[in-house]
Amino acid sequence: MAQLGLVGLGKMGFNMRERLRAAGHEVVGYDRNAEVSDVASLQELVSALSAPRTVWVMVPAGEPTRQTIAELAELLAEGDLVIDGGNSRYTDDARNAELLGRHGVSYLDVGVSGGVWGKENGYGLMVGGDKADVERAMPFFDALRPEGPREESFAHAGGVGAGHYAKMVHNGIEYGLMQAYAEGFELLDASKVVENVPAVIKAWQRGTVVRSWLLELLVNALEEDPELADLEGYVEDSGEGRWTVEEAINNAVPAPVISAALFARFASRQEDSPAMRAVAALREQFGGHAVKTKKVSG
Q1: pLDDT, position 230
Q2: Is 174 noted as a catalytic residue in this protein?
Q3: Which pLDDT score is estimated for 295?
Q4: Which of 99, 188, 241, 293 has the fewest CB atoms within 10 Å around its CB?
């Protein structure tokens, strides 16, 4: 049994705490929501841990994570270890590691995949940092990942930053996969030939080359709402899709599928697309094609 401090008990962090405890580890959790927190402050969390301490951070990427790590740098001591398991941009990792390093505190960045199903199914883990620090944290990684060969759900991807870089690309691929399933669903739904769209998609789960866990989740959604009529077609992006496209540009790597999936999410947020209005106007101008005009009251 090992001891871990866990900062951030949201959708992911809360379930991770439960999975780690089920594996026999002692977990002290801190969250601003007092209803789920074990302690009242970061100071109290650090005081509750025995040296050398390991603290895993699961708070929103960006300033919340940077601020949390800056606070921990002042509270922890030489020999301690901080793990950032959130969706931080990989470029933040070197700065976090340098800040903690000035206090003698080690740093690992971990890309965590598994979502709200991770408590039951386990999490895929991609880790960046020093090999000795990875080995030190391995009891926690083994408790969090799914059962089976370690190499099928865990990777020491490289030095600091490599874990979050790997997770960034993972999420970019996820964008493309989801968009392909979504477009296939729309085409089936729009056709006059296929009469039972949910049944077709459900039948893809075994024996076909497009089977995946994402497909299973789409089947679950269609079983609850066969036409997905209760949902609005508005989709946010977490940032990692954007970062993946930026890295593709920086490295001159063609990534048309991931790029298109990202831009499709942008399009989903436009109730009345200015670009499509311009296309309609051009079609009317050069070809005399019919257009729909807005009704103006008064």
Answers
A1: 85
A2: yes
A3: 63
A4: 293
